[in-house]
Design a protein that fits this description.
By secondary structure, the chain is of the alpha/beta class. It has 9 helices and 19 strands.
């Protein structure tokens, strides 16, 4: 009989990009988006009778989350833990700046909330579920100065420290795999770090702390039946179906952070865990859509009408929209931004508008033929062709003249 496991990661409650203030709750509409995604996870786990839920790190955007955000997160986690054992790993966004301070999820351990295990340090444990035991090993986000002795590596370069930490993590992973191999039960490894060969996403834009890359070979041990990863926002399986290696899976983030994730599906993983015969699938959630709309109206008689017509043709309901308008210089004054903003507000959750104006080249009488142009005239021609303003062109020409004259 297989054990039903749900794996998710990188929730990042507190991201407010492209949000609006909700007057009823006093919080950003984007915070509601992230909590709604967690609601989907909770509903799926309960309705499908999950035996174990694994959260692979990064509960909040910051190390010191707002109390309201903590309350809303805790409510949902408690709903899960009331029915299902839950493991929560510490990610880089959960770690405080000082080692003595608590992580953003330590409160569950301090209050000894039943059915919740917090993975703060490298360790392992057998977790009893309704369909049998699971051996769980875990490695939280590696923090250099907490893993290696300052005295031992005094004077070492950053590269040398990286190699030392990588060697330590690899050794710890080998020890966990050794422990797993001794257990006659399904075995899962949970980690929050970057793995060599993974495709990175927008997590780079919100990174807290210096990153460390763990070699994939350190995870590809047949002692494991499934490797549940967090930290990278793009969902991917690094094992690529190879055997006898286990699936090495980033579940990805639950909600889009920016337009770098516009085309990425968001969700979590559902696993039928069985020793040597594990199967899994990706379950997509209803993440807020991001849409880039680029409109070229240079040939339009009425640029405003052309832009609005394009907006009405697109599927933008509830989306966060980035509108890019390409128009001619003579059309700029005729563009009625207020009407465009109104049209967007009727369909989009949030929208930004940018204009790309094609400036008409204003080239002075630089000579009858190209051969007659001086180096300074060619320089002026270049800056004008690049749509530099007359003031900027004049300044650049002055600087160029100084260079040509050896000043």
């Amino acid at each position: 009989m297989s054990i039903r496991l749900l794996h998710f990661a990188d929730l990042h409650v507190g991201m407010e990009n492209y949000g609006k203030l909700d007057p009823q709750t006093g919080t950003s509409s984007r915070i509601r988006d992230f909590l709604d995604r967690l609601d989907e996870v909770v509903a799926y786990a309960l309705s499908h009778e999950a035996d174990l839920v694994i959260f692979a790190g990064d509960a909040f955007k910051t190390r010191d989350p707002d109390p309201t955000q903590q309350r809303e997160f805790a409510r949902r986690i408690k709903t899960l833990a009331d029915k299902i054992p839950m493991f929560m790993l510490v990610g880089n966004h959960d770690i405080p700046g000082m080692a003595a301070r608590a992580t953003s999820i330590d409160i569950f351990r301090a209050l000894e909330v039943p059915n919740i295990i917090i993975g703060k340090g490298i360790s392992s444990q057998v977790v009893e579920t309704r369909r049998g035991p699971v051996f769980l090993g875990w490695v939280p986000f590696p923090v250099r100065n907490r893993l290696i002795s300052q005295e031992e590596h005094k004077g070492a370069s950053v590269e040398e420290l990286d190699r030392a930490v990588e060697s330590l993590i690899t050794s710890e992973l080998q020890e966990l795999a050794k422990q797993a191999a001794e257990r006659d039960m399904p075995r899962v490894l949970v980690g929050h770090f970057s793995v060599g060969g993974a495709t990175f996403g927008s997590e780079r834009s919100v990174m807290l702390g210096r990153d460390l890359v763990v070699p994939k070979s350190a995870l590809a041990d047949p002692a494991w039946d499934y490797v549940a990863l967090g930290h990278i926002h793009k969902h991917q399986n690094l094992a690529n179906g190879t055997q006898p290696k286990p699936p090495i899976v980033y579940s990805g983030s639950l909600e889009r952070i920016d337009f770098g994730e516009e085309r990425e599906d968001k969700g979590f993983c559902w696993i039928d865990l069985k020793r040597g015969e594990t199967e899994w699938k990706f379950v997509q959630v209803q993440a807020r859509p991001f849409r880039t709309v680029r409109v070229d109206v240079r040939e339009a008689d009425d640029p405003t009408a052309a832009v609005i017509a394009e907006i009405q043709q697109r599927q933008l309901d509830g989306a966060i929209v980035r509108l890019q308008i390409c128009l001619g210089e003579a059309q700029e004054a005729a563009l009625r931004l207020r009407e465009i903003e109104t049209a967007l507000s009727q369909v989009a959750s949030s929208a930004t508008i940018s204009k790309e104006v094609e400036r008409e080249a204003r080239i002075a009488n630089l000579g009858p033929t190209p051969e007659a142009l001086s180096p300074l005239q060619w320089t002026e021609h270049y800056f004008v062709s690049k749509n530099k303003s007359p003031e900027r062109t004049k300044l650049l020409i002055q600087k160029a003249a100084e260079l040509f004259n050896g000043e």
